[in-house]
Fold this protein.
Amino acid sequence: MNQPLPKHITDIIKERNILRATKPADPRITTLSNEITQLIGKHRAEQWKAKLDQIGDHKKNSHTLWNTINYLSGKNPPSQPNTIVTFHDKPAMTPEQKASAFNKQFVNTIQHATKTTNRKVDKHTKALSSNPIHITATQVFDAISKSSNNNSTGPDHINIRHLKHLGPLAIQYLTAILNLAVNLNITPQIWKLAKIVPIPKPNKDPGIGTSYRPISLLSPIAKTLEKVLLPHITQNIPQTTHQHGFKALHSTTTALQRLTNQITQGFNQKPPPLRTIVVSLDLSKAFDTVNIHSLINKLHQTTVPTTIIKFIASYIKGRKGFTQYQNANSKPQQFKTGVPQGGVLSPTLFNLYTSDMPNPPAGVTLTSYADDMNPAASHQNYHIAEQLLQPYLHDIFNWTESNDLILNPDKSTATLFTPDTHEHNITLNLTINNTTIPTVKNPKILGLTLDPAFTFAEHAKITKEKADSSIKILKALTSTFWGKQKETLLATYKTIILPVIEYASTVWSPIISDTNLQKLQTTQNNALRIITGCTSDTNTQHLHKETKTLPLSNHLKLHASQLRQKSQLPTHPLHDLNRQTNCPRQKKETIFENWNGKTININNNSATPPTPDSTSENLKKIHTIAVEECIRSYKPNPILSQPAPDINQSEQSLPRKTRRILAQLRAGKSPILLSYMHAIDPTSHPSPTCPLCKSQEHTTQHLFSCPKINTTLTARELWNDPVAVAALLQQWDDALGAAGGGAGSSLT
């Protein structure tokens, strides 16, 4: 895209520049400048079109498509090899200097003091008896095959794709090596080495070291072993109910559902309703500051097999990392603290490390996702809620101190959720280590923006801005006459825009106002118009039918219904929320009530507890019901005067421009129809009449019935046989050309 301009443009630029230097008042300068701007714009558009033709789609050669999308979204900013990067006001110029400075920045981010108890922990570990652990070739094969593909190599110059090409004998050999490593407690040094790659943060100054984040690449063989050992650990460590991170059936959604349920319960009580205070605690680089010997000591308190404890103790101690920048490698430095970044076991080991966190006292709750910790308290009087929370905040701070974690009161937040608008501007008086926690109105907790009145208006605003920004990427991938096919654009929408809109929707969709939901619906409509190429006045029902996409209200209802159904399982972390006592007032709805029909409920037979199989069947039923509800709400298609059938897949063989016209014709609103152009601009198009027969209006239906065109096709073939209709449009194009052309003569 950064190729030099062609000679015919540079010649005009030179001519313009000579005039500027010799005759600055010459009126031709403005004319030439305008011509240069137009030529450069056209040239760049042709370059971009050629680039799009080269990249793949969502099915074939898809990595080139997603790399392009990431580039457009700013996730993969272009590298600038000659940039001077500053670290603590000291410039690094050569790749070697930058690699060394980055390594100092990324490794050992905090000061580390050796504890006298470390030797005692090491002695205890060494004294543990070992019982053989048998790793099977099937376990190793499954661990490799279920790993995501990645082209990045670890410090051993191997990536996961290499391992996926191993045959049965090689898998057996690798299995034998892993068995020896675990049972003899021998960890090759290459398995304890991390290759760190600095990645520029989007929209940050590339000349500052802190504008980069580290990506840690480990040996894929070591990560395979971690995957094999993971079940032995997860099944034998304490499971705390407040922790939702990196656990089966748990997610940020279940954490948010649990936290916000407490807030809605407060709003729904009789006057005076409960006020809820939520504190969002900020831990600095929690994974990187874990005390390794303290973690090993906590492993000793579990039922994890002793052989695995001894191996993990060896595996996480004495690790080193080097930074690679522009093919230059720094010297390795030893990690004094932290669980291995990029390791499979690391999140679970962190859960173990935090599992002995103090339990909240009566009247206080705790909801956590990894290192995001959110204590909360509810009471009719917010002062009493403060009093309930304050001692617990003190207990948490003491725990972080004793566990070498850094709790930042300045970066933590406290928010009061209350139906009383007079209390929305109150400053809470909560402290950590004698530092007041800032009171904020719109905390962002696990990606969800909250507000004191619990309306999610601010979240809707932020979500719309973010989604609208991503729509620019769709526009870059297509145009009126060229671009990616509808299916690729739809896959792009579902990958980069829809997840932004629907994030945590099971929490906010039952509560959000119709006005704010309509704003998000407008964003979806804009995306679907770009995808289909339909005109701006095309009704939204046609857009959803063309793309087989549910309107947001139906889509969000489906998501909410499916989560509610999953929570019917006794093992689900939200199961108890189905059995809550009904609140006396209906102020804030959740997916576990159904006051306004926001969910599709399929209640299980109380005599037969739900099973994973029955739940799976119910999820399918819910999906079917949601789709059928939507289809029933559709009005008849204006062209057929009845519900439109599905579009035949043969249409996918047609060019983007032709498919765009077909989508417009199926709605009866296309610039190739004189009746449509007359309706929107009667001055420029004074007659809606067919330019061939000159007796009837030039509509979609008339394309199939004009006496000047010989065809047996009907309007229904727009859906059933799009390829044949494309040939018909070419016939129209030829006939109009023979009749003298004019407006509307270019149909294909």
User: Anything to note?
Assistant: The chain has a mean pLDDT of 91. The first strand starts at residue 85 and ends at 87.
